[in-house]
Amino acid sequence: MFVLRRINVDVAKRFFSSSAGVHAAKVSVLGAAGGIGQPLSLLLKKNELISELSLYDIVNTPGVAADISHINTNSKVTGFIPENEGLKHALSDSTIIVIPAGVPRKPGMTRDDLFNTNASIVRDLAAAAVKYAPKAFLAIISNPVNSTLPIVSEVFKKHGVYDPKRLFGVTTLDVVRASRFVSEIKGTNPKDENVTVVGGHSGVTIVPLLSQTRQKFTEEELKALTHRIQFGGDEVVKAKAGTGSATLSMAFAAARFTDSLLRAIVLGESGIIEPTYVKSDLFSSEGVDYFASNVELSREGVGKIHPLGSISPYEEQLIGAALPELKSNIRKGEEFVANN
Ligand SMILES: NC(=O)C1=CN([C@@H]2O[C@H](COP(=O)(O)OP(=O)(O)OC[C@H]3O[C@@H](n4cnc5c(N)ncnc54)[C@H](O)[C@@H]3O)[C@@H](O)[C@H]2O)C=CC1
Ligand SMILES: O=C([O-])CC(=O)C(=O)O
């Protein structure tokens, strides 16, 4: 692993010093002054594959950008607010646009309860991406992800620039949590615990495929772990007691996802697999057009979408419960763009 990273950095150095006209990676964070946006921007400042880190929010971005810009890594940091065509400058020539803009949950809310506020925020940011960076890759963090990715897709379709290979719903936090939770009950190092999590990103739509891990679980462990992975977000919302939801672990997860995407699209590294929510045919025969599963990333973005493989009867049951909710979340997002 270490050797691979070393090679990446060398390739990156060559990439940036090349005069062959290849443009270096500009990554834009929309919602950069928020609970996720700030630590995510901090982590991205360390990424050697980023030449410009472009931070946009409706408030406070100049301060966040000035602060982060003092960190002595190679990338340039720019900060924008809506004034003076800030969004245009934030997005122009972007390679990847990461979107954690929007409101988080308070105790007692579901992610779907955020729809009324976040749907229009995400729709408008997607429309700006269409205008200023139609070829960028978009990573959507704003909840409810099950609906916000379809919203972004519909906006791109409306303007005739839709490429499903470039649009991702970020579900990395579910796999990060699953790995950590398994390691906690088995007393192992989480780096050795890989759990594929499929479906969507809310409650019962989050389906961990624990039968495919290297561990054996009792039925009791299986049920408790599955529930904890499905409702891990609620643990944080409850503990934060009205001040927000997961921000730091989410920033970690989004930085990992962005790095994977950069390595695939900028360096052309092969074999990078991230579970992510994308336009997918896996369950389209059942009317579910977006689904999270293991996706091999490529220079084009989405490469091979891996099938679920062999799953247990319990997991089949979980998938059965996830599909109707996913279908309705997806339809809600699509109808929102059609009607607004
Ligand atoms: N996909 C996932 O796994 C996760 C998703 N989330 C979601 O991420 C979103 C953000 O969460 P936090 O950072 O905790 O919220 P936050 O409220 O701390 O930050 C959100 C930021 O978005 C900004 N914003 C609002 N409207 C905007 C617009 N039109 N353009 C640009 N920026 C805008 C706000 O000014 C604020 O700085 C929430 O919807 C939350 O539910 C949170 C954790 C995990
Ligand atoms: O729970 C929330 O609302 C935030 C989130 O998506 C997560 O932590 O998985």
From TrEMBL:
It is an enzyme of class 1 (oxidoreductase). Pfam families: Ldh_1_C, Ldh_1_N. GO terms for cellular component: cytoplasm. Substrate binds at R105, R111, N143, R177. Residues 26-169 form the Lactate/malate dehydrogenase N-terminal domain. It catalyses: (S)-malate + NAD(+) = oxaloacetate + NADH + H(+). GO terms for molecular function: L-malate dehydrogenase (NAD+) activity. CDD domains: MDH_glyoxysomal_mitochondrial (cd01337). The active site is at H201. Belongs to the LDH/MDH superfamily. MDH type 1 family. Homodimer. This is Malate dehydrogenase.
